[in-house]
Every structure is written in structure tokens, then in C-alpha cells.
Write a structure and sequence with these properties.
202 residues; single chain; 5 helices; two-stranded antiparallel ribbon; 10 strands; disordered N terminus
């Protein structure tokens, strides 16, 4: 009887774990992304609904300290400069817990944004409530959203391109290709890729 009870407890724990894993898996292609209200480095709250004229969004989970995120900063700025005027602004979100990684504190976010001249909002996921909804696991981790009558539909998930270390050696510009396709009302050919970066510090 004791062994039977233990077996039931193990089974129950397994079911709970499986349920929680599926629940926290985040968005898939075709999911409707819920809006948020997060503090920007200018101390103002930012939501997707603020962008009345936007056709969609390039949501990028990134941070200050990660070498991969740093390597992509200039490319993220270039994406925003190119696509913001076409209706797809970059919305950057720092998902890290500053108690685990002090270099990702809100105050240091302000410093980094000023140093690099970020042209886009750099938001702090206070309480780490947003990144689990998306299912982000790395910095950087990109979600391209298309605004529709149903809401902001996820159209691409993954990496910015296929070479984090050398921009001149990039062969596949995943995010750029996805947004270009959406602007032409075409299907995104590569919908998901593996995000390469640092693990999010919870």
C-alpha cells in the first residue's frame, strides 16, 4: 500500500510538471499576443496599443550584459530605423531579474540605452510576467507580430539572423525576411528558428 501511494504521488507530480510545462511553453505561430504595460527607460509606460498606426511589431527580449545581445545591438537599431517608418517598430524588453544579474537593472538599462542611442523603447519586465507569456528563453529572442482585427498575431519566432558573431557573414536575415514578407502580404517562409543567446535570468 505504501509503495502504491508513492507511485501515485510520483504520477501526480509528473502530471503537474507536464501541465505546467505546457502552460508555460508560450506563444506559437498564429497565437494572439496579449498587450502589456511596461516601463520604458524614459520612465513612461509603454503598451502595444499606443502604436495606433503600426502594422505590427518586432518584439525583442534582450538585455545589457549578454555578449549575444550586445553583438546584436547595432543590428536591432538598424531594424528599428528601417521598419519603424514602414509600420513595424522594434519593442525591446529586458526580461532578466536584476537580483540575479545586477548589470540588467533598470538604472543600468537607462545608461545602456543612452550610450548606444537606442531609437526604440527599452522596457523592463518588472516581476518577469511578460516573457513567460511569450515563451522567451534567450536574450535575444524575437517575436514578429502582425496587427489584425483579431489582435497581434505571432508570425515569426526565433533568432534575428544566422550569425551572431559576424554581421558581414550573415546569410539568412530571418527577421528582415519575415517583415518584408508581411509588408508584401505574403506568407513568411521561415516561421521559426532557434534563438541563440544567454539564458534568461529568473
Amino acid at each position: 500500500m505504501k509503495k502504491f501511494k508513492i507511485a501515485l504521488l510520483v504520477l501526480a507530480a509528473g502530471l503537474i510538471t507536464a501541465f505546467n510545462t505546457s502552460k508555460s511553453a508560450g506563444y506559437e505561430i498564429g497565437s494572439i499576443a496579449t498587450d502589456f504595460s511596461l516601463k520604458n527607460v524614459d520612465n513612461k509606460m509603454v503598451s502595444l496599443k499606443d502604436y495606433k498606426e503600426a502594422k505590427g511589431f518586432i518584439v525583442i527580449f534582450t538585455c545589457n550584459h549578454c555578449p549575444y545581445a550586445i553583438a546584436y545591438e547595432d543590428r536591432i537599431i538598424d531594424l528599428d530605423k528601417k521598419y519603424k517608418k514602414l509600420g513595424y517598430p522594434v519593442i525591446a524588453i529586458n526580461p532578466n531579474n536584476p537580483e540575479k544579474q545586477k548589470d540588467d537593472s533598470f538604472e543600468k538599462m537607462k545608461v545602456r540605452a543612452k550610450e548606444k542611442g537606442f531609437t526604440f523603447p527599452y522596457l523592463f519586465d518588472d516581476g518577469q510576467k511578460i516573457y513567460p507569456q511569450y515563451g522567451a528563453t534567450k536574450t535575444p529572442h524575437v517575436y514578429v507580430l502582425q496587427k489584425t482585427d483579431k489582435g497581434n498575431v505571432v508570425k515569426y519566432i526565433g533568432a534575428i539572423d544566422d550569425n551572431h558573431s559576424d554581421e558581414t557573414a550573415v546569410e539568412q536575415k530571418y527577421v528582415q525576411n519575415a517583415v518584408d514578407a508581411l509588408l508584401k502580404n505574403q506568407e513568411v517562409k521561415v516561421k521559426t528558428t532557434k534563438a541563440i543567446g544567454c539564458s534568461i535570468k529568473a
